[in-house]
Design goal:
alpha+beta, Protein Transport Mog1p, Chain A, seven-stranded antiparallel β-sheet, 11 helices, 16 strands
């Protein structure tokens, strides 16, 4: 056999060997793919395509792995301050929200605080006095208006929007906390998270917190981090073992937690009231600040010292001396009322409250008094 024929024969054999190897590899790959394709029947077509190297996506993947984090990821580490003024009207709840870098929000604090003081409502239509260095922004979906604050680039924005009346403040507070990377709060700590503000034109609630994050909503499909999962609604539980009492007639057990040792609920003609027993550290809780907070909650923040003094009386609960304040004003514009007592026992400050609709609170004074007479804290 000549050398040319030998080379052709060797080339043919090599070609067939290479082809056989490719067929073996292809067959193995096909079996592997069939084993993964659980839902595939025996009659299904299996097509294997070779992807050119330039179109495989590996090059882009390698490049992307070397690029810096995108803006959304980087924003998680920035210090963000969020401020929300909440106006609760019979027709709707209005939200005036500022969110941005902490230093910018702080630099404009005097401006937006003064702005909040000018907000008033004619029915359900808000009006305000806008500072001279602010401007009206473009219309955006789901907003009543957008205001641009100061001369920053990009400028801080105040979003103005409204939802239906009687909004769940705890749900909103936890959503905002999640947007700036802070843990959720609970119903008993909500007063420390959303502060009541009283001014000449209208009363409102103020959420003002600093955390780390974009301060924007980040749904799962937006490419951002998921907000913290909201805790499940609390369920009715038995009171703490060291707390004993007799439940007044017509009252039902409500949800409790580590601080709220007892919660009793009552509803009548659509009106609601609750009796609560709350244990807090004595070192961090004094009488006067809590009375002031209770006053603001029921619209009685304007009481003089003498007027407040007339509402305070001495009380004894389980042999422990304390004070009680009666914050019911049937002639006030507020529908809410509170009767609250405080006693200190060891390292604990105990808060004992009857709160809710003022008509229901007023009608259940005797029930609350009977409850306190049976209450054992030791």
């Amino acid at each position: 056999m000549g050398s040319e024929q030998l080379e052709n024969t060797e080339g043919t054999i090599g070609y067939r060997v290479n082809k056989l190897n490719r067929l073996i590899i292809l067959g193995s790959l096909t079996v592997f793919l069939l084993s993964l394709h659980v839902g595939c029947s025996q009659d299904d077509d299996i097509r294997v395509s070779t992807i050119p190297k330039g179109r495989s996506g590996l090059t882009k993947l390698r490049q992307d792995s070397k690029t810096p984090l995108n803006a959304a990821s980087a924003s998680v580490s920035q210090s963000t301050r969020m401020v929300v003024a909440i106006f609760q009207n019979p027709e709707a709840t209005w939200f005036f929200k500022v969110s941005g870098p902490t230093e910018q929000v702080a630099a404009t604090e005097k401006s937006w605080k003064s702005f909040f003081e000018t907000i008033s409502f004619d029915g359900n239509t808000p009006s305000w006095e806008m500072p001279s260095d602010w401007a009206t922004g473009a219309e955006k979906p789901m907003r009543y208006a957008t205001l641009k604050i100061g001369s920053f680039s990009p400028p801080l924005e105040m979003s103005i929007s409204s939802l239906g009346p009687n909004q769940d403040l705890l749900l909103n507070a936890n959503r905002w906390l999640g947007q700036i990377g802070l843990p959720p709060t609970n119903s008993e700590s909500l007063d420390a998270t959303i502060e009541p503000i009283k001014n000449e034109k209208s009363n409102f609630l103020l959420f003002d917190r600093t955390g780390r994050g974009s301060g924007k909503m980040t749904p799962p499909f937006a490419g951002g981090a998921r907000p913290p999962r909201q805790p499940s609604p609390p369920t009715a539980q038995p009171p703490a073992q060291n707390v004993k009492f007799e439940t007044p007639a017509g009252w039902d057990a409500g949800p409790t937690n580590s601080m709220v040792k007892v919660r009793l609920l009552k509803e009548s003609d659509g009106k609601k009231a609750q009796i609560s027993v709350i244990e807090m550290p004595a070192s961090a809780n004094t009488w006067e600040p809590n009375v002031l907070r209770w006053q603001q909650q029921v619209g009685l923040g304007g009481l003089s010292e003498s007027e407040l003094s007339d509402r305070v009386s001495a009380i004894s609960v389980d042999g422990v001396a304390g004070k009680m304040v009666d914050l019911i004003d049937m002639d006030s514009d507020s529908d809410d009322a509170t009767i609250a007592a405080m006693v200190k026992l060891g390292d604990s400050a105990w808060f004992l409250k009857l709160s809710g609709d003022k008509n229901l609170v007023d009608a259940n004074r005797d029930s609350f008094k009977s409850f306190l007479e049976t209450l054992k804290l030791k």
